[in-house]
Design a protein that fits this description.
Shape: elongated
Largest sheet: 2 strands, antiparallel
Oligomer: single chain
Radius of gyration: 27 Å
């Protein structure tokens, strides 16, 4: 049982799901079992439906078609832009080699509640509300951002501007943006064809 001195302050921020983040007391003064019990109380009330809704929202957030950087140089076509981009990409890899690193994010284990029933000489137990997310390791290139900036500078030296434009919404707009030379005025370049130059 927590004393009033161990209870948390009322400065809790919402977590990524929009729920109020639990205020944890000073865990130095608590035993591990008390901390695990507090974590379990936070996750126990969430239904499977709410967890699935969270996953759906995160997946949809990754599919948005907001503005993306686009190389712009009046009169150039897609193959010219691709050739210039490839030259800059090769130069960036030569100048800034990959520096692979690993990021580990700790897992989460929340014990559920165990309920046992005894009927005669048979006891059956079931656990509900538990959560077990294993730790994950992600490998990434620590020099990726530096190489992107190198490529942007290289493209600018070749006469390109890096504009922020949304992806074209219709097939006809995508086809026009991909095949026609870029217009003389950057304001007339409304959208990008959505072609990944690294592809």
């Amino acid at each position: 049982m927590l004393t009033d001195g161990a209870r948390c302050q009322a400065k809790c921020l919402p977590d990524i799901r929009g729920y109020a983040r639990p205020c944890w007391p000073n865990t130095d003064a608590l035993e591990t079992s008390s901390v695990l019990r507090l974590i379990g109380q936070h996750f126990r009330g969430e239904s499977i439906l709410k967890k699935l809704q969270l996953v759906a929202v995160l997946l949809l957030a990754g599919c948005q078609t907001g503005p993306v950087p686009a190389a712009f140089k009046p009169g150039t076509n897609a193959s010219q832009r691709q050739a210039d981009y490839d030259q800059c990409k090769i130069a960036s890899l030569r100048e800034i080699p990959q520096a692979m690193a690993t990021q580990v994010s700790g897992g989460v284990y929340t014990p559920g509640s165990v309920q046992c029933r005894t009927i005669g000489t048979i006891t059956s137990c079931s656990e509900s509300g538990g959560l077990n997310i294993p730790a994950t390791a992600t490998t990434y290139d620590a020099n990726h951002g530096l190489r992107d900036r190198f490529i942007n500078r290289c493209m600018m030296q070749k006469g390109y501007s890096i504009l922020s434009r949304p992806a074209c919404s219709s097939e006809s707009e995508r086809l026009k943006a991909a095949t026609m030379p870029q217009p003389a005025n950057p304001a007339d370049y409304k959208c990008t064809p959505g072609i990944n130059m690294d592809g």
